[in-house]
Amino acid sequence: MLLLLAFAISTTRALWQEDCLKASDVTVCLLNGRAGPIGHGVPIPLRDLPDSLIKATIATEDRQFYNHLDIDFPGTVHLLLEAENGSHQHSSTITEQLARTLLLDAEPSIGHKIKQVLLAIWLEWNLTKDEILRLYLNCVDMGADTLGVDGAARFYFNKPARDVTLAEAAMLVGLINAPTRYAPPIDPTTAHARANMVLDNLIEAGFMTEDQAIGARHNAAKVIARRNGTSN
Asked: Is the dihedral of CA 175, 203, 47, 104 positive or negative?
């Protein structure tokens, strides 16, 4: 218990000293535990993001996000048991993913996993669901050296996140957790297939009907490929 308390104190104190979780000040503030903050971004309020993007995120990453304490305790215990073996197969909740993003460490040790769990609990106790989701959508790694859905929207579609279409929102959400694998400029076919899966998630979650998704399926997102000067 003393060890867990020490982890909790060190984690939350570092975050508050850098004002990392003050929603009115900073959107992106990643810590590596040694050098302090390594990234910042312009705050994007949740109300400025499209409803389709928010719903696609919840439908794909954590459908019960607003309905429960967003900590998967059985899954977390399994994660801790496998941490020393280097396994990363745990399907995390949005809050747990945010905690993992906020705490960077070159060596994902058992102690580091415990800090992630404690931070996730602290986030649930101290922030509202909207504040957690806002931080998540602004901090998540979207690949191509971009952080947050707004940065990714500007990079891939040359527009702010508030202006993305349903098809573009689906492709952005598809990048979460596997931005390299589903990067549109690298593998357009896989990226579009992943976007269709996100649309399926919206339908399965009851956020959208198949008829509403037809337009997005027939008019797939077109990516601005900055490296080769073409669009996909």
From this structure: negative
